[in-house]
């Protein structure tokens, strides 16, 4: 049986997108996204809970996101979860779970069209696995 790894988020960018290129010239952009939910607590008071996600975009989508999105903008992100690990300077194994974006849409201002998708002509197909590049 096949598995499913799909994430859909609507939230606000908490950081400006940071774009870089891998050693082989592939564009990669990363940003943090805040997603909030409201609920009523057991005491009847209205509560808000915010989760933070790191979103990674590759190829043409990375370039487009870096060019048009900035901190505070509302966006829809669709992608998959990816956990990577590395050994820290102290010898301990570190883990980080990220959302690898396949689609990003602007949700505020007049621009509500898709920025890019792995399924359309506007963006290059997403790699099955992200290139293993060391990150600072």
Question: What does this 3D model show about the protein?
Answer:
The protein starts with 6 loop residues before the first strand and ends in a 19-residue tail after the last strand. It is mostly beta strands. A hairpin with a 5-residue loop joins strand 3 and strand 4. The chain has a domain of 89 residues: OB fold (Dihydrolipoamide Acetyltransferase, E2P), CATH 2.40.50. 7% of the residues lie in helices and 51% in strands. The relative contact order is 0.23. The C terminus is likely disordered. The longest helix is centred in the middle third of the chain and has 10 residues.
Give structural attributes.
about 140 residues; mainly beta; OB fold (Dihydrolipoamide Acetyltransferase, E2P); 1 helix; about 5% helix; disordered C terminus
| Low-confidence regions | 119-136
Which bin fits the share of residues in helices?
under 10%
User: What is the annotated CATH architecture of the domain at 7-40 and 47-84 and 101-117?
Assistant: Beta Barrel
Order of helices and strands: EEEEHEEE
Largest sheet report: 5 strands, mixed, barrel
Determine the N-to-C terminus distance: 37 Å
Give the strand order of the largest sheet, numbering strands 1, 2, ... along the chain.
1-3-4-6-5
Q: Which class of the domain at 7-40 and 47-84 and 101-117 in CATH terms?
A: Mainly Beta
- The helix tally amounts to 1
CATH topology type of the domain at 7-40 and 47-84 and 101-117: OB fold (Dihydrolipoamide Acetyltransferase, E2P)
Q: CATH H-level name of the domain at 7-40 and 47-84 and 101-117... which superfamily? A: Nucleic acid-binding proteins
Question: Structural class per helix/strand content?
Answer: mainly beta
Give the percentage of residues in beta strands.
over 45%
Shape: globular
The count of β-strands is 7
The gyration radius over C-alpha positions equals: 16 Å
What is the mean predicted local confidence, pLDDT? 84
């Amino acid at each position: 049986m096949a598995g499913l790894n799909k994430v859909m988020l609507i939230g606000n960018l908490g950081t400006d997108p940071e774009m870089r290129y891998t050693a082989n010239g592939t564009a990669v952009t990363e940003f943090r996204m805040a997603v909030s939910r409201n609920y009523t607590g057991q005491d009847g008071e209205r509560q808000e809970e915010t989760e933070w996600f790191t979103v990674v975009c590759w190829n043409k989508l990375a370039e487009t996101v870096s060019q048009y999105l900035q901190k505070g903008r509302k966006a829809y992100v669709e992608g998959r979860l990816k956990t990577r690990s590395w050994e820290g300077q102290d010898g301990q194994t570190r883990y980080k779970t990220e959302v690898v974006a396949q689609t990003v849409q602007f949700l505020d201002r007049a621009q509500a069209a898709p920025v890019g998708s792995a399924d359309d002509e506007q963006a290059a197909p997403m790699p099955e696995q992200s290139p293993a590049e060391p990150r600072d």
